[in-house]
């Protein structure tokens, strides 16, 4: 790792992650075990960002694989499906800048994202989920629906990739972390 950074990083250039300068990397030696590359909140943010980006990529790639195999039952255009997939994670690019609405604390904040996820996952093979009426939604009926949608995603992912589906996490908050950048 050190050789890679020495070779590829410009001399005297500070590495950044989402606009936050990272301290210089220096591997701990056997004499010095006190070195920490990043503070705990920034390490949590980095882990969240990697997991979130992985989830976004695997969700999109699963849908694209099923389309390529001809296993998707929908009349939605490719651009429409991409927009619907992006709305499920809060819009924007693959690079996470905002918390994912699918893991919001309040169930009412998750409704639109879960219905967007449902419109994609519901078109996948062997997925038979009956969506409740969005207008007369209670917390308990939404919770059941949400669990069914996430279970259908996880099962389909496992069926096609033979491994556990990626998991969503809350975006960490704290001092010194990159600011939340709202999507347009």
Report the end-to-end length measured between terminal Cα atoms.
Answer: 37 Å
Percent strand: under 5%
Q: Which H/E pattern describes the elements? A: HEEHHHH
Number of strands: 2
Oligomer: single chain
Main sheet, how many strands, which sense, barrel?
2 strands, antiparallel
Spatial strand arrangement across the major sheet? 1-2
Shape: elongated
Instruction: Enumerate how many helices there are, as a single number.
Output: 5
Please compute the radius of gyration using only Cα atoms: 20 Å
Structural class comes to mainly alpha
Low-pLDDT runs of 5+ residues are none
- State the helical fraction: 40-55%
Mean of residue pLDDT? 84
Care to give the gist of this entry?
By secondary structure, the protein is mostly helical.
Structure, explained:
With 184 residues, the protein is mainly α. It is built from five helices and two strands, in the order αββαααα. Strands 1-2 form a two-stranded antiparallel sheet. β1 and β2 form a beta hairpin. α3 packs antiparallel against α4 and α4 (107-121) packs across α5.
Name its key features.
mainly alpha, 184 residues, two-stranded antiparallel sheet, 5 helices
Question: Layout of helices and strands, plus pairs?
Answer:
Layout (H helix, E strand, L loop, with lengths): L1 H7 L7 E2 L2 E2 L18 H29 L9 H11 L18 H15 L17 H23 L23
């Amino acid at each position: 790792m050190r050789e890679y950074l020495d070779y590829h990083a410009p001399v005297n250039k500070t590495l950044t992650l989402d606009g936050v300068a990272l301290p210089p990397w220096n591997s701990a030696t056997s004499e010095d075990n006190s070195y920490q590359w990043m503070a705990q909140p920034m390490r949590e943010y980095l882990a969240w960002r990697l997991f979130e980006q992985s989830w976004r990529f695997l969700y999109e790639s699963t849908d694209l694989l099923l389309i390529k195999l001809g296993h998707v039952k929908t009349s939605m255009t490719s651009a429409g499906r991409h927009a619907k997939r992006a709305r499920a994670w809060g819009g924007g690019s693959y690079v996470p800048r905002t918390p994912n609405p699918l893991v919001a604390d309040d169930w009412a904040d998750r409704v639109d994202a879960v219905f967007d996820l449902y419109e994609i996952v519901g078109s996948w093979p062997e997925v038979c989920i009956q969506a409740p009426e969005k207008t007369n939604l209670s917390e308990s009926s939404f919770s059941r629906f949400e669990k069914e949608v996430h279970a259908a995603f996880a099962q389909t992912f496992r069926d096609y990739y033979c491994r556990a589906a990626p998991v969503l996490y809350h975006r960490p908050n704290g001092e010194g972390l990159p600011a939340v950048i709202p999507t347009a």
